[in-house]
Amino acid sequence: MSKLNNKISEALNTEPIEINPVVEVQPEEVIPTNQVEEDADFARSNMRTLIAKGNQAMDQLLAVAKESEHPRAYEVAATLIKSLADMNKDLLDLQKKRKDLTPNGDGFAGNAKNLNVDKAIFVGSTNELVKFLKNNK
Fold it and tell me: Which of the two ends of the chain, N or C, has the fewest CB atoms closer than 10 A to its terminal CB?
């Protein structure tokens, strides 16, 4: 214990508090993963499951609507049809976004062969530019 802690305890007529040393916790090593691929696979799997369950529910809902001939049942069926159609579009949009975000040649990072540069800007010092120009001659 420190002398200061002892003096304060004596002055206040209390027992000194033991202070435990602070232990530094080292962060765990982060293993880089391809989160875009994992997230896209996860979202795709969930969407496909929801579409499959929606199709099953649609069959049952249409049977209920046909038997009851109630307008509300047909309204709910129409809403579910629209939701399923939107989900199918979302699934296709997910594939497109996945291609745009992955740098494996399908998306923007690997698509350099189709890149058309109109204006190029050199970023660096004048010395680096002179060296670069001398090396190109």
Answer: C
* Helix, strand, or coil (residue 107): coil
- Owner of token pair 């969407």: 47
Q: Which superfamily is assigned to 35-102 in CATH?
A: ESAT-6-like (1.10.287.1060)
Tell me which residue of 102, 57, 104 sits closest to 76, measured CA to CA.
Answer: 57
Q: Are 80 and 61 a contacting pair, CB within 8 Å?
A: yes
Please check whether residue 99 is in contact with residue 106, taking contact to mean a CB–CB distance below 8 angstroms.
yes
Cβ-proximal residues to 124 (8 Å cutoff; 6+ apart), any chain: 132
H helices present in the chain, as ranges: 3-12, 35-68, 71-101, 126-136
| Residue 66: alpha-carbon gap to chain centroid | 42
What's the length of the chain?
137
Q: What is the pLDDT of residue 2?
A: 73
DSSP state of 114: G
Those residues of the chain that have pLDDT short of 70 are 1, 17, 19-33, 102-115, 117
